[in-house]
Amino acid sequence: MINIVINGKPCDTISALDRGLHYGDGVFETLKVVRGHIMFLEQHLQRLQQGCERLRIPQPSMEALVQEANSLVNDEAKSVLKIIVTRGGGGRGYRLPDNARNNRIIIRYAFPGYPQTYYRQGVTLRICDQRLSANATLAGIKHLNRLEQILARSEWQDESIAEGLMMDQEDNIIEGTMSNLFLVNEDRLVTSDLKNCGVAGIIRQFVLDMAQEMGISHDITVVKKEDLLTAGEVFLTNSLIGIWPVTKLLHISTQKSSQIDYKVGPITGRLMQGLTREEARQEV
C-alpha cells in the first residue's frame, strides 16, 4: 500500500500547474526505512537543502519534513520513503514565479524485493549506450529530471542484469542508472569524480568516510573503461541497496560483446560489514 502526504496533509493529487511536472523544477530524496527508523535522514535532508539552494527553490521547513516523514513510518521490516520538493505552481514560461511556494510531497512505498543472492553472490552489470550530459551546476544533486537514466534503463529487459553503467560524453564511467560505482585496484578504492555530472550518493559518501576510518586508501578521479579491465573488485552503492558486489560486467553493442568477471573481494566485504553495523546502530 502506498501512502502519500502533500504539504502535511494526506492527499494523492497536486496542481497540473506545478513546475515539477512542467519543467522538472524540483529535487527529491529516496530513503530506506528499517523497523521504523529512517536511515541517514540527516544526510538526505542536507543534500535536499543543497539541491534547493542550487536551483534557487525556497527552502522547505526541515522540521515539517521530518514530522511528515515520520508520520508515514510504521513498524514494517523495511519500506521506502520518497521526499519530493518542487518550486510549486507558476504560469507558463521558464521565468521564476514571484513569491513561489514550494510543494512538499512524501510517499511511502513497499521495499523492493531485491534477491539476497545479490549480496552474497554479486550482480551482473552492462554498459549503457545513453550518455550523461555535463552540467556542473546540476552535478551531484538529485533534481527531478531523470530522462537520461530512464533512457539508459530502457536499453535492457534481461532480469539477470541488475544495473547499467553510464558514461559521460568523453567515455568516462560516471555511475549506474540508480547507483554509484566503486572499483578496487591494488587495494586502493576508486570512485568517479562527479564534478560535471552524476549524483553524489549518500552511501557513496558514507563508504568514502568509512574507508578513511578503516585506513583504506581511496581516490575520487576519472574512471575509464580500461580501469574496469584491471579492477580487482567492483561494487555499487545507493540508499536502498546499500552495497552490491559486482561479479560480472557485460559490454553489449552492435559491434561486439564481451564479459569481465570479478570476485567478491575482502575490501568490499569489510565495507559491507561496516554499513550493516551503521544501520544497526541507527536502529537503536
Looking at the overall shape, the CATH architecture of the largest domain is: Alpha-Beta Barrel
* Radius of gyration over all CA atoms, rounded: 19 Å
Poorly predicted ranges: none
Mean pLDDT: 94
Beta strand count: 15
Residues in β-strands, percent: 25-35%
How much helicity do the residues have?
25-40%
In whole angstroms, the N-to-C terminal distance is 26 Å
Give the helices and strands as they follow along the chain: EEHEEHHEEHEHEEEEHEHEEEH
* Class computed from helices, strands and strand pairing: alpha+beta
The dominant shape is globular
Look at the structure and name the CATH superfamily of the largest domain: D-amino Acid Aminotransferase, subunit A, domain 2
The total of helices stands at: 8
CATH class of the largest domain: Alpha Beta
- Outline the biggest β-sheet: 9 strands, mixed
Summed up, the domain count is 2
CATH topology label of the largest domain: D-amino Acid Aminotransferase, Chain A, domain 2
Notes on the protein architecture:
With 284 residues, this protein is of the alpha+beta class. It has two domains: 3-110, Aminotransferase class 4, branched-chain amino acid transferase, N-terminal domain (D-amino Acid Aminotransferase, Chain A, domain 1, 2-Layer Sandwich), CATH 3.30.470; 117-283, D-amino Acid Aminotransferase, Chain A, domain 2, CATH 3.20.10.10. Helices cover 28% and strands 31% of the residues. The chain contains eight helices and 15 strands. The chain has helices spanning 19-23, 41-55, 62-72, 117-120, 147-153, 202-214, 225-230, 266-283, and strands at residues 3-6, 9-10, 26-34, 37-38, 78-86, 103-110, 123-131, 163-167, 173-176, 180-185, 188-192, 218-221, 233-238, 242-252, 257-261. The strands form two sheets. Strands 7, 8, 9, 10, 11, 12, 13, 14 and 15 form a nine-stranded mixed β-sheet that branches. Strands 2-1-6-5-3-4 form a six-stranded antiparallel β-sheet, with helices on both faces. A hairpin with a 2-residue loop joins strand 3 and strand 4 (37-38). It is globular, with a radius of gyration of 19 Å. It starts with a strand and ends with a helix.
